[in-house]
Design brief:
Helix content of chain A is 37%, strand content 27%. Chain A is of the alpha+beta class. Chain A has a single domain, classed as 2-Layer Sandwich (Heat Shock Protein 90), CATH 3.30.565.10. Chain A has a five-stranded antiparallel sheet with strand order 1-2-3-5-4, covered by helices on one side. Chain B is an alpha/beta fold and 116 residues long. Chain B is 45% helix and 18% strand. In chain B, helix 3 links the parallel strand 4 and strand 5. Classes of the chains: A alpha+beta (140), B alpha/beta (116).
């Protein structure tokens, strides 16, 4: 894969969340035909999932790749990985939480990010860290 | 206080334009800063302008709702302005419920709602 089509960003503090957003915005604009709404979906999911890295694992990284289907349609794949505490119960973590639990629980960051994706996958276990794959394809 | 967000007096209301991304630490300062200003000025309305913010994620949306709820305890109504259609659609798609805080299209409309 062409080096220009891959981007790797470390997440170690809150400033990195914004830094990653700025880099991925340019990356999307240079490589994909996304509407403003589609770009907003990608940047919002990025914001939610990088914040989860910072909040739960302290540090990790996000790797962005441009994918292409045989029919020519392109998409962005974002892989978020950390060596944090992991998610003991993924099904539970993906359930939307009532607003009263927002303060302490995972809230809707994870479940909401899944709803913004075309393809979404979580690999995680307690004490084993977390790898989340988020993919969104061009519509036209 | 290490606060980077201006709090401006506008008639009987306070206008808070948020131009930079907030961190956890700044959020707490902003909360207390806004509430103290409401107390000091006896403001009846709080207008928070997010039109310069690119992405309103669930973290940021929750902050806005929490500030609005706290302001309500001080008899001050909060109106959020500058939410774009794309932001609104994204938050809705994520399942975020925008509860307890009003929105308006712009500051003018917010002032009409609150009363000048």
């Amino acid at each position: 894969m062409d080096a220009a089509e891959r981007l790797e960003i470390k997440i170690a503090n809150e400033a990195d969340i914004l830094k990653s957003r700025n880099k991925i915005r340019v990356f999307i604009m240079n490589n994909l035909h996304f509407s403003l709404l589609e770009r907003m979906h990608a940047l919002t999911a990025l914001s939610e999932l990088t914040r989860n890295i910072f909040k739960y694992a302290g540090e990790g990284k996000v790797v962005a790749d441009i994918l292409q289907k045989p029919n020519g349609k392109k998409g962005i794949q974002l892989v978020f990985s950390d060596s944090g505490p992991g998610i003991p119960d993924i099904d539970e973590a993906l359930k939307p939480k009532p607003i009263s639990k927002y303060q302490t629980g995972m809230g809707i960051g994870l479940s909401g990010s899944k709803k913004l994706a075309d393809e979404f996958d979580i690999e995680s276990a307690e004490g084993k860290g977390t790898i989340i794959t988020w993919i969104r394809w061009e519509r036209h | 206080m290490n606060i980077h967000v201006p709090i401006l007096k506008l008639g009987k209301s306070l206008l808070v334009p948020i131009e930079i991304e907030l961190t956890d630490e700044m959020v707490e300062d902003l909360h207390i800063g806004i509430l103290k200003e409401i107390e000091k000025t006896n403001a009846k309305g709080l207008i928070i302008d997010v039109s310069l913010i690119e992405v309103v994620d669930s973290f940021f949306a929750r902050i806005l709702i929490n500030i609005g709820r706290a302001a309500k305890c001080l008899n001050c109504n909060t109106v959020i302005v500058g939410v774009t259609p794309e932001m609104a659609l994204t938050l809705t798609k994520m399942g975020f419920e925008w509860r307890g805080v009003e929105t308006a299209l712009d500051v003018e409309q917010a002032l009409d709602r609150i009363g000048r």
